[in-house]
Amino acid sequence: LEEMFLAGADIAKLAVMPQSMEDTLNLLKVTLDFKNKGKPVCTIAMGKQGKHTRVVAPLYGSVLTYASIESDTAAAPGQLPADEVKKIMEMLK
Question: pLDDT tens digits for 44-58?
Fold first, then answer.
């Protein structure tokens, strides 16, 4: 992420396929670290282990998330439908 900012990025994006819940926690920690530095990032963990990051990463500072229009049109593993993401995010506010 830091290299992306050094190259002139306005927002840095990191999407990973975690192998463990520890990987997912590390991604959320990195997200919070960059938020605290004032550097906007978009972070996503894909697949079953990372599915929840699509709604919780913004709580740690990810400036955006990705969702599908419908449940059968996901563009990446673990991507949730937009209506579900919206409902969950509203509940977490």
Answer: 999 999 999 989 999
